[in-house]
Amino acid sequence: MENVAPTAVPGMEAEEEAISFLDRVLEDEDVFYLEDSDCRTPTSPDGPSSFSETPKGESESDKGLLMRKLVLSGVLASEEIYINQLEALLLPMKPLKATATTSQPVLTMQQIDAIFYKVQDIYEIHKDFYDNLYPCVQEFDNKTTVGHLFQKLVNQLGIYKAFVDNYKCALETAEKCSQCNNQFNKISEDLKVKGPKDSKEQPTSVTMEALLYKPIDRVTRSTLVLHDLLKHTPADHPDYPLLQDALRISQNFLSSINEDIDPRRTAVTTPKGEVRNSKKQFFLLKHQQYDCKWYIPLADLVFPSVEESEPIPQLHATPDHEIEEMKAKISVLKSEIQKEKKSNKGSSRAIERLKKKMFEYESWLLLFSPTIPFRIHNKNGKSYLFLLSSDYERSEWREVIQKLQKKDLQAFALSSLELQVLTGSCFKLRTVHNMPIISNKDDDESSGLYGFLHVIVHSAKGFSHSANLYCTLEVDSFGYFVSKAKTRVFRDTTEPEWNEEFEIELEGSQYLRILCYEKCYDKSKLNKDNNEIVDKIMGKGQIQLDPQAVQSKNWHVDVIEMNGVTGTLKLYLRELPEPLLTDRLYLAFMEGIALSDPAARENCMMHLLRSLPDPNLMTFLFLLQHLKR
């Protein structure tokens, strides 16, 4: 329910949503780049703004100064978050060391040193960097220099080298200690990270494993902010050579780290994204080889009950907005490929280049999107975790395995020679020869449906006992399945009647899946991991979304022409009495969206968005909500 007065000031949530929308909109130069458009509008009059006025004769150095301050403000905000994460990680270290010398230690000193190796040093380096950078940003002008601070920071990257070398040992030690000591397990599963000092955010609960990964994630992005600063620093500025030197040191350090890391040595502890990158390389290899890492005979495979299962380690899931951004990029590339094909001058080389780019994007999406855990165990308690994109697939795996286990199966052990023969046969016996993505399809193959599908979930019958029932709808999108809709829970019945209508967006979709669940309200059966669905699947089905079959069945298909939507939007923007983003701020928006460092980009866009006059900002947010509907 929304009830907003015309003069209401938009909240932080709406502003952040608007920024993510700007990220997509401002990159589409064909539609919104005003310099190449004939829909110029009068210069906006001066309005109330927290952004300093820019004179007409403003120099490039003044613009660069403004961007440098915004980038550095983003660095400060990012550093504060990182320092809070390190503080949360270090918080249990002192009490653990205090108990290590008692008669009942939680951990030994050797275990503590292995887990927290170099974390204190990293914290002190970044705390010193933050304390020195803060006053520079607060009193920033064209004479302010910060290059020496970044140079000092990168010269201490050797500490990170030691941390990276010990990372696997730290994780393994923490995992073993958690399994052997319930007290430490409780500590490591619930570390509190406080929010920024100026925010009202409550401390968030994070696992020790996730916090131990933060320094690695941090150091791999160390060059981004240096690139942004150099871009907006004049060549004659005292900071320029210092920042260049800092960038060189940082790049050399990252190169040495990459050379030292052996993928086979880090396979067990590599975070989710990095594991999937190696999988992507596997798909692209011309000469494929197979190596057996483990196997479980079906006779030894078990599915533990919810009560018996151990908590699944926290997964480093890819944020939803990154998934949506990648899908948007794929859609743009698909449109460009179609334009090239229709154009008389469209070259095969240009089309192949676009297809190659789309293949890379689709590969990324296919490997980064699955988040639903499917875990199997052997009789000795050893478990293995798979990530799937759909609960439908997880149910299929369970059903097939349980069906095969009904046969008279015997446990066995394979010799090294038998394993070698088996893995050598994998290439001939495999059933998947290509990644299930659109760019692999020939031109005459169906690439699925695009547009919107209207689905009405009426009712269900055939249940043997009363239950609390609901349904979910899934469609495939660029090779993986996504849950798109969910009905309400119909309580205590054998014949639920939902009668709910949904509008589902299709993006190269070929199948519609429906799953019916029994809702679980018994708290004793709740799973310990948020990703695990505990509700029982009562039934499922799948419908092929073939374009010809749809037409033959007289299904109603609404096709929304994107050019019509953008054309109407451009006409509306052309008729406005002044530019929506204002002439004064438009170029700043374009420069802000081009920043490489995510924290700096977000900080810059927040400043610019709040700087719009209230009528412009309210109009922009209204358009955003309208386009979403």
Give structural notes:
It is a single chain. The longest helix is centred in the first third of the chain and has 31 residues, at 60-90. Helix 1 packs across helix 22, helix 7 packs parallel to helix 12 and helix 14 runs antiparallel to helix 15 (348-368). The strands form 4 sheets. Strands 7, 8, 9, 11 and 12 form a 5-stranded antiparallel sheet that branches. The chain has a 3-stranded antiparallel sheet with strand order 3-4-5. It starts with 11 loop residues before the first helix and ends with a helix. By secondary structure, it is α+β, with helices and mostly antiparallel strands. Among the domains are: 61-263, Dbl Homology Domain, Chain A (Up-down Bundle); 298-438, no CATH class. It has helices at residues 12-25, 29-32, 60-90, 93-100, 109-115, 119-138, 147-154, 158-180, 182-189, 208-220, 222-231, 239-260, 272-284, 320-342, 348-368, 391-405, 416-424, 426-429, 547-552, 562-575, 583-593, 598-611, 614-628, and strands at residues 191-193, 204-206, 301-302, 372-378, 383-388, 449-459, 467-477, 480-486, 490-493, 497-509, 511-518, 536-544.
